[in-house]
Amino acid sequence: MSDSLYTQLLDVTCGAFLLAAVIVLWRRELAAIVRVFALQGVALAALAVLLGAHEERWDLIGVGIGIGALRAGALPYLVRRALAALTEDRQGYATGGTETRETQPLVNVAASLLTAALLTLLAYAVSRPLTDLEPTPATRALPVGLAVVLIGFFVLVTRRRALAQVVGFLLLDNGITATAFLATSGVPLIVELGVSFDVLLAVLVLQILTTRMREAFGTTDIDDLRELHD
Amino acid sequence: MPHLAAGATSSALLLAAPAVVPLVAAGMYALIGLRASPPVAVVPPARRAVAALPAGEAPVLVAEAPGPEPVVVRHPGAWATLVSPAVILVCGGLLAAAVRYGGALSAYSGLLRADALTAWMLLVVGAVALISCGFAPAYMAGEQAAGRATDQSLWHYHALVQAFLAAMCLAVVTANLGVLWVAVEATTIVTAFLVGHRRTRTSVEAAWKYVVICSAGIALAFLGTVLIYYAARQAGIAEAWALDWPTLVARADRLDPAVTRLGITLIVLGFGAKAGLVPLHAWLPDAHSQAPAPVSALMSGVLLSVAFAAILRYRVIANAALGVDFTRVLLTGIALLTLALAAGLLLAQRDYKRMLAYSSMEHMSLIALGTAIGSPLALSAVLLHIAGHGLAKSVAFCASGRILQLTGTVRIGRVRGLLTRAPAPAGAPAPAGAFGLAVVALLAFPPFSLFASELGIARAGFAAGTGLGWVTAAALLLVLIAFAALAARTARMLLGPAPAEARPTGSETTTVWPLALGLAACAALGMATGPLTDLLHAAAQAIGGH
Amino acid sequence: MSTVGYAAVAGQIVVVGAGAPLLTGWMRQVRSRLEGRAGAGVLQPWRDIRKLLGKEAITPAGTGPAFRIAPALLVATTVVATALVPLLSTDTPVSGHADLIVVVALIALGTLALALAGLDTGTAFGGMSASREMTVAALVEPTILLAVFALSIPAGTTNLPAIVTGAVEEPARLASPAGLLATAALAVAVLAETGRIPVDNPSTHLELTMIHEAMVLEYAGGDLALVELGAQLRLTLLLGLLSSLFAPWGIATSASWTTLALALVLFAAKVALLGAVLAAAEVFWAKVRLFRVPELLAGSFLLALLAVTSSYFLSGGS
C-alpha cells in the first residue's frame, strides 16, 4: 500500500470514527444511537486492520477483526437486547416511547453539540505533546481518539437514560482503544484480551442492572435514582 | 532467594496460588449454584429469584417474601470459604520470608512478580479476607432468616466473593501494568452484583452508580496506561517489556516527560476513583452502605488499598521520569480535597454505614498524603496505615452489619444504648463492643496501629519542609474534625440507656472470633511489628523510600 | 485571455440569472412528478415573474427606504457574488477579488436587507420572521465561513478560485475527512440559507412555521418579482458554489473557449442534478420543528469546526 493512500484511508477512517461519536450526541432515539455506535465499531476495526496491513502484522489484523466482532457485533447486540426488553411490555402504555428516547438530556442537544466542538479543540490542545513525540500519520490522528474519549465522558455525564449512559461508557472505551491503536498499534495481546473481556462483562452487568432498575423503579431514568444522598 | 534449586517451580506456585485458588473456589461455588437451580441451564441473574423455587411450584413472586418456614441450614460450603484467605495468607507469609530483605521473585516470564510490597499487600488482603469470610456465614444466615437471601443467592454470593479475592490478588501479584488494570477493572465487575445483592431500590441505585463511575474512572487509568506504554515504546523498550513495572522503573528516565505527565495524571485520577479519592469518589458511600457487611468490609478494607497500591507503583515511575514534585503536588491536592470533603460530610452524617464509608475516604486521603510526602518514614507509615485501616475498618463494617440486622435501622438517631441493651437480644453486646473498639481504632487511639501510622505520617510531614508542614497541619485539623464527628456519633450509638422497646430478634449467635482476631491483630501491629519490620522497610524501599 | 475571462464572468451572470427561475421550475417539476402530479412545467417561474413585472408595486403606508431598496439590494448583492464565485472558470479578471469572506459577506448583506424590510413593514409577521431569519443566519454564516475555511487550509489561501484550482489539481483533498465533513456542513448550511426543507418550507404560508415567506408578505408587483428572483438566484449560486467546491471537475482553469463551453454544460448538469436530488429529498423529509432548527444548525457548525480541526491537524503537518 502506498504511503499516501494509507494516510488518506487512515484519515477517512478517523474522520468517520469521530463523526459517529458526534452523531451519537446528536440523535435522541436510543435505537439510532446504538446503530451509530455499531458503525463506529466498524470504523475502529477498519482502523486496526489498516494499521496491521500497513505494518504487515497479521496479528494486528486478527485483533482488528476480533475488535470488530466485539464492538460492532456483540456489544450493540447486548444493548439492543436490553432496549427490546425495556420496550416489550410497554407497548400498550404511553410511557413506551419515553423509555427508548433520550427526551431530556441535562444539556440540550444544540448546546451539547457546541460543547463537543470545544471538547474536540481541547483534545487537540492536550494531545500536542503526544504528536510531537513521534509525528507520523497515525499519531497525528491521536486527537481523534482523545476527542471521542471526551465526548464519551460528556455523554456519560449528561444523558439521563441508563442505556444512553452505557453507550457513553462504550464511546469512552472505543476512544481509548483507538488511541492505543494510533499511538502504538495496540497494546500487547494479553492486555487487549483482558480489556475486551472486561468491557464485555461490564456491559453485561450494566444490561442486567438496567433490567433490575426497571423492576425496582419502573423506569430507566437516572434522575429517579436519588434515594441515596447525604 | 533462599532455595534456588526448587526456586523456579515453587515461586511460580507461590505467585499463582493467591489468584488461582480463589478463582477455582469461585468456579466451584458457581457450578454448585447452577446445579442447585432447577432445569434452566444458564440462569440470568435477573430471574434467579423465581428460578430458585422448587420445580413444580407455581412461579409466583416470592423473591422478597420468605418461604413458609425459614429453615436456616448451616450452609455446607460456608466454611470452605476460609480456604482461600488461608491460602493467600500462607502464600503471603512465604513470599514475605523470601523477599523481606529486598529483591523479588518472578514467574511466567515476568507476568507475576512478588516484591516486599506484594507480600505486604497479600498479607493484608488475606487477613481482611479471613475476617470477612469468617464473619460471612453468620451474617448470611441472619439475612436468610430475615428472608433477604435465598439458598441460591448464597451460592452466588460466595462465588462472587471468591472471584473478587482472585481479582484483587491478581492485581497485587502481577508485574504487568496492563494486567494490573484488567484485574482492578475485574474487581468492579464482580462486586457490582455484590453491591446490588439485596435488589432493593437503594441497592440497585448504588450498584448502578458504582459500576458507571468506577468503570469510567478506571477507563481513564487505562488511557493513562496506554500513554505510558506509548512513551515506553518511544523510549526504545521492546513490546513485551513496555508495560513491565521493573523495566519501566529501571528506564523511567528515558520516558518523554510531557507524555508521562499526562499519563500519570490520568492514572492517578483513574485509580484514585477506585481508591475513593476526589474527584470520582461519589460511588463510595453509596456502594459501601448498600453492600452486604462482609463485602463492605472487603471493599473498604482492601479494595481501596489495592487500587492505591497501583498508584504507589506508578509513583515510582513518575518520580524517576518527572522528579518528585509532580506526583507530590498532585497527590497532596487530591488528598486535601478528599479529606475536607470527608470531614465535612462526616459532620452531617446520619447513617452509620455511610459514616464508616466517609471514614474510609478520610483514611485513604491520609494514605495519599503520606505517599505525597514520600520519605522512608512516611512510606512505612503509609503501608502500616493500609494494614491497620484494613483490619479495623473490616471489623467495623462487619459489626455494623450485625447491628443493622439486630436493630433493623441504619439511622444513627434510632440506635441507642447498644452496649447496655445486654440481655435482651443475645447477640447485641458483642458486635456493639467490637464496633466500639474498631471505631476507637479508626480514631487512631493507642494501642491500635493507626496511632503509630498517623503519628508517622505527621512526623514525616513536619520534617519534610515548610510547604508540606503547612499541608500536614491543615490535614491534622481536618482529621480532628472527622475525629469529633465520628466519636460523638459512635458514643451516641453505644452508650446511654437502652430504649425500653428493644426489638426482639432472632437468637442466632454472632461469630465473634473474626472480629476479635482483627482487633487483636490491629493492636498487635500497633505495639510491635515484630517479624514484619523487615518486610515493611523492604516494601517502603521498593516503592521509593530510599 | 481577457476576452475569454470577461466572457466567463458574463456567462456566469447570464447563466445564473436566466437559469435560476428554470432551476426552481425544474425542482418543482421533479417534486410534482414524484408526488404524482403533472406539474406546471419548467418555465412556470419565468411566467410568474413576467406576470408580476406587469403589475404595480405597492408600498404599504409607513414604510421607509429599507422596504423599498431591499429587493434591488438582494438581487444586486447576489449578482455581484455570482460574478465573483468561480462557477465556470477560475481564470477571470475578477478572480483576484473573489475572496471567501467577501462572498459570504455579500450573501449576508442580502439576508440582512430582507430582514430589515420585514421589520420595516411593522406587521407582526414581518417582525417575527425577521427575528427567526436572523437567528438562523447567525448560525449559518459562521458555518459557511468555517466549512470553506477548512478547504482553504490545504490551499493556503481564502481565495475561492485558488481553492477550486487546488482541488482540481489534487482531488485527494476532497476525500479527506476535512473535505467530507465540510461538504456535509456546507450542505446543511445551504439548505438553511436558501430556506428549504427541513429548515423552512418555501411553499407554505402557514404563520407558525414560515421564516422566509413571512418577510416578503407585503411585497407586490415588480418588487415581489425581484424578491423571488433574488431567492432563486441565491439558491442557484449556493448550489453552484457547493458543486464548484466539492465536485470541481470540468471548471475551466485556463482561458480557452472550448473548456469554457464544456464548463457551461457541466455546470448546468451538476446544478440540475443537485436540484433534482434536493427536490427528491424534500418529498421524503418533513420540516423540522422551529425549536429543533438551532440543533440542526449547531450540528452543522460542529461538523464545519471538525473539518477545520481535522484539516489543520491531520494533514496540516505533512
From TrEMBL, chain A:
Entry keyword tRNA processing: no
Transmembrane domains' residue ranges: 6-26, 33-54, 60-79, 106-126, 138-156, 163-183, 189-209
Keyword Membrane tagged: yes
Cell compartment(s), UniProt: Cell membrane
Record keywords, A-Z: Cell membrane, Membrane, Transmembrane, Transmembrane helix
InterPro entries listed in its UniProt record: HyfE-like
GO cellular component terms given for this protein: plasma membrane
Topology in the lipid bilayer: Multi-pass membrane protein
PANTHER family: HYDROGENASE-4 COMPONENT E (PTHR38601)
Protein name: Hydrogenase
UniProt organism field: Streptomyces antioxidans
TrEMBL record, chain B:
GO annotations of cellular component type: plasma membrane
Domain NADH:quinone oxidoreductase/Mrp antiporter transmembrane per the UniProt entry, residue ranges: 176-472
Keywords: Cell membrane, Membrane, Oxidoreductase, Transmembrane, Transmembrane helix
Membrane-traversing stretches: 78-99, 120-142, 162-195, 207-232, 262-283, 295-314, 326-347, 367-388, 426-448, 468-488
Record localization: Cell membrane; Membrane
Coiled coil regions, renumbered to chain: none
One example of a Gene Ontology biological process annotation: ATP synthesis coupled electron transport
Metal-binding as UniProt keyword: no
Domain of life: Bacteria
Name of the protein in its database record: Hydrogenase
Entry GO MF terms: NADH dehydrogenase (ubiquinone) activity; oxidoreductase activity
Pfam families the record matches: Proton_antipo_M
Protein topology in the membrane: Multi-pass membrane protein
Lineage: Bacteria, Bacillati, Actinomycetota, Actinomycetes, Kitasatosporales
Primary residence: membrane
UniProtKB/TrEMBL annotation, chain C:
Keyword Membrane found: yes
Keywords associated with the record: Membrane, Transmembrane, Transmembrane helix
Main location class: membrane
Cell compartment(s), UniProt: Membrane
CC per GO annotation: plasma membrane
InterPro entries: ComplexI_Subunit1 (IPR052561), NADH_UbQ_OxRdtase_su1/FPO (IPR001694)
Transmembrane feature ranges: 6-27, 69-88, 100-122, 134-154, 233-251, 257-284, 296-314
Protein name in the entry: Formate hydrogenlyase
